[in-house]
Amino acid sequence: MAGLRTREELKRLEDLGRICRGDIIKMTTVANSGHPGGSMSSIDIFLSIYDFAKNDPNKPFDPERDRVIVSHGHTSPGVYSTLGRLGFVDIDEVIAGFRHPGSIFEGHITRGIPGVEWTTGNLGQGLSVGVGMALASKLSGKNNRVFVAMSDAEQAKGQVGEARRTAVKYGLDNLVVVIDYNDAQISGRAHNIMYVDIKANYLADGWKVIEVDGHDYLELNEALVEAEDSKGPVVVIGKTIMGKGVSFMEGDVSYHGKPLDFEKAALALAELGLENDIDRFVQMRKVLPSYHEQVQAIDEDVKPFTGDPIVYPVEKKTDNRSAFGKAVGDIGRLNKGRLPVMVVDCDLKPSTKVSEFEKVWPENFVQIGVQEHNAATLAGAASVCGVLTFFADFGVFGVDETYNQQRLNDINKANVKVGVTHVGIDVGEDGKTHHCLDYIGALRNFYGFKLIVPADPNQTDKAVRFMSETKGNFVIAMGRSTMNPVADENGNPFFGEEYKFEYGKVDVIRKGKDITLVTTGQVTHHAVKAADELRSHGIEVAVLNVSCPLGANFDSVKEFFSSIVISLEDHNVASGLGSILADYLVGSGIIPKSFEKIGVERYMFSGDNELLYDLAGLSSKAIVERIRGIIK
Amino acid sequence: MAGLRTREELKRLEDLGRICRGDIIKMTTVANSGHPGGSMSSIDIFLSIYDFAKNDPNKPFDPERDRVIVSHGHTSPGVYSTLGRLGFVDIDEVIAGFRHPGSIFEGHITRGIPGVEWTTGNLGQGLSVGVGMALASKLSGKNNRVFVAMSDAEQAKGQVGEARRTAVKYGLDNLVVVIDYNDAQISGRAHNIMYVDIKANYLADGWKVIEVDGHDYLELNEALVEAEDSKGPVVVIGKTIMGKGVSFMEGDVSYHGKPLDFEKAALALAELGLENDIDRFVQMRKVLPSYHEQVQAIDEDVKPFTGDPIVYPVEKKTDNRSAFGKAVGDIGRLNKGRLPVMVVDCDLKPSTKVSEFEKVWPENFVQIGVQEHNAATLAGAASVCGVLTFFADFGVFGVDETYNQQRLNDINKANVKVGVTHVGIDVGEDGKTHHCLDYIGALRNFYGFKLIVPADPNQTDKAVRFMSETKGNFVIAMGRSTMNPVADENGNPFFGEEYKFEYGKVDVIRKGKDITLVTTGQVTHHAVKAADELRSHGIEVAVLNVSCPLGANFDSVKEFFSSIVISLEDHNVASGLGSILADYLVGSGIIPKSFEKIGVERYMFSGDNELLYDLAGLSSKAIVERIRGIIK
């Protein structure tokens, strides 16, 4: 609980520090794996922060709790021992189970364990997490604070600078960073490996800096109190010693990732004045189950009003991204004053169309500038704090540049709604650096993210409303160009009034016995146009639209696959829809008459998107030609 | 050519600035697309740098040339007009062809065009490119210099800070950065979007800062001369005005990405005192071809000695990463004093084993610390400057965290040899944040990168030597644990003396008619063990090792696919080898008796890698059980 500590309270923490050091040694020795050195360096910081934060061990998922983020997730022994000794978890279970598949106490800290707010381990993302949570707190009108513990080595990561600037821009006076400055990392002294003037860097970005002895509980406590009263974000730089507390470990970088053997552990525990009960934990470990279920955090429900769909008439050309922007704007308007909604932009609002939201709710429009890594992480973090969070960007930034940030959002089972526009060669003139050709193939590598690639503005509108009210991480991927919304055979909007978006459903837009086109996104309307033209030549072409390539219910349309099957996609032909369909066909033992994949076969160049579609075989003209070549 | 300019020379440049501004307007108007505002803001900087650099338009690929990197690649009209007016390219072709698919002059500048050293467009990578090229120059003992032009908006990108620190660490006095500080970006004034105190940031990282008027040729020239004499990297911050030179464009951010219409273009050209010959270019454009071949830079040949392979005996357990480290060390030893070889590490050398190289050639061992984005880009850039360049990292960093940096290396057709260790759940206790499960699926999205996933230390050794002497980008992906090298049926090393690595070859390690296991990497030895055990039970199992999943020559082994086929991989089961094989089977019309994919089906947790393999069905024990369940 915040505030200045009495001498007795400090004494208690100091004693816990000694006990936790023993726990760190025990658990790493029992596991014969893990990172004791950094844990013993950070332990006094962890105890100080967790003790200071308002976070009741009996209500660890209370929405009003302070959040503690530990960015250097490999110091899990330090974090777990702190949580054990402060009553969040059972310390015996920690020591016996650390890094065992039958235990939740993994090698890197894992969200869902009481007191752990974010799974970390890939350095440099933690400050963005803290910024996201501190922003969420502000936008929700809560008073909770956010503490971020970090290592010194990871100060070299660029994403930290991005997060730093964002914290200053948004005046996050509810954010405190504490850096474990032990000047030691795997390859030696941090200042030799890659010198970072940490203080100068934080000052350059406008932070208040407090320097303390990172093993002195009084100095740490005073710094946290001072930070609480500051007008903006504060960093506390705590000078520490790796392996602190055990003479033969102090300053020895080889203990970064190396546990003590039983003999050395006995020596260390004796030096710490602690009982050596390691054998008890070795015995406990032997009877652990062979695996554990995934831990699950309890997040605030996010139940937005999603309003009524907009129906776009088939006569009028429009683009998916405009429909996206309008729907997001709509959701902003409907929920303003009811549920916090936040939109994160990286200086592309006129193109991604989220300026529609900014008009409605400018205070909640978060402009991060050209700092995509930070943007993706902070959006993920905010999304688990009761804020409906959208992150809008071009495909090459929101998927490719931030691939590992999204992977961590996925591992964290966050709830972020990513809208990426400008996917495919449909982007046209901006050329290969801006053609995102892997929005399916990249996300296919993740286990949790859901992907929607809508066919037209009508499907886009409904998909945006659907993902907003559905828990979990989503990407909705859209092209750039305009089109006439897809019509049914009677000329009415296919995704009109009656249509309800359903994740995984494959839309049968046209039926036909001669050939089956399987497509997605921006290519769908070209396929439909081709099918309609071919029908007038007596060739019956079925068109299936797969708006959810990663979760497509192909079983429901399998009667179409005994025909000649062609997949069509504005995506790398090797790694997208065609490959997923092939996988399904082989796995299901379905043998089409023939199977062919059409997609983008090389990095494409600049050019008008219609020309590029012709070249790639994706325009209606090219599709007609191809099919007339097959069916003479 | 470097040095102080006379008044006449400056006058000539100034006049070229006026003419180039006209070119910028013409080409964007003719293309009806592109970025005139920033181009006109940067044009005086571009002219000053290209005029100053030692780079003969008649020998644009001379290895001794100075390199000019333009990080804000969307200012291509500015770069192309500069190159046109300085004699590198034909200005008429530029103006007529800009952003047309029949022209090499794409929307973002493209490596291979004379004078363009790197394809950029995704902001924030250019300084890393410059650092890589400046380092390469130092390691090669050349005297050439590197100039990097950047925008102010991209100073917010974290990767810039990473590159900045690296330049200081390596004392790169041959590197000069010039920033176009126009304080304008898409959404408005840069300082409102995401404030960066550019000067303070460079100073904090130890750079020398010179501030000038970015439209004043004298000041720019004096700054470049001063930079040349400095002891470390220098940044020149040039204050500029977006749209400079045409009154109604100046300071108007809407011209960031919007061309003038014909009428406005006429007004602008008149104001610049230039002839309006736009119609001539419109006519030229009409007769351009419908697409162009890829442009190709001429890089220095890199022909290393690769030495004799090391053969690891089957009795002794070892790990692929040790074999990798040894081979890289060997190549260092063999080429020292003959060909520059460089190894880039991100503070993981004891684990990736590249410390073997450091022992041999410490001066060329480049330690970047925890700055993976920068490391990946600088390695790619150095690799096209005559330096044999390795980048070693864990899979989650060298592939996932740096996904878009590797994508740009791919687009740039670089020559970097990426060694990633710690792929798969074979990593064990470090848990899900460190289990790289997408090393195949991620790279499958790129068009050029080659991927090798060696089965054992013997194949690793040969693969490393192969990729070192073979042009192009490679990733070699390795697990963490040790194994007995794979033996043939007589107990000799399968990949022994006689074996020659061949890209794409599928290795038939065991033959058998009952079932075919198709596998890769760390799983291979488990599959072989299972096959040998099953043989003693009368079940004949073929084992195919696919060391090159992205280029596998499945045709050569297709007789094995009519059997029961099972793919086995320590990879996300959805996106790896099994999916590639399914794709091949459907595409080739081959129908196996049955087809099943075994791989990793969820984010796995911490645990001993053998336990995890049991759980995932990848251990020899699990494979035997599975097969005995199928063939009773």
UniProtKB/TrEMBL annotation, chains A, B:
Keyword set includes Phosphoprotein: no
Single GO cellular component term: cytoplasm
Membrane-crossing residue ranges in chain numbering: none
GO biological process, one term: glyceraldehyde-3-phosphate metabolic process
GO terms for MF: metal ion binding; transketolase or transaldolase activity
Family from the record: Belongs to the transketolase family.
Subunit structure comment from the entry: Homodimer.
Protein name: Transketolase
Lineage: Bacteria, Thermotogati, Thermotogota, Thermotogae, Kosmotogales
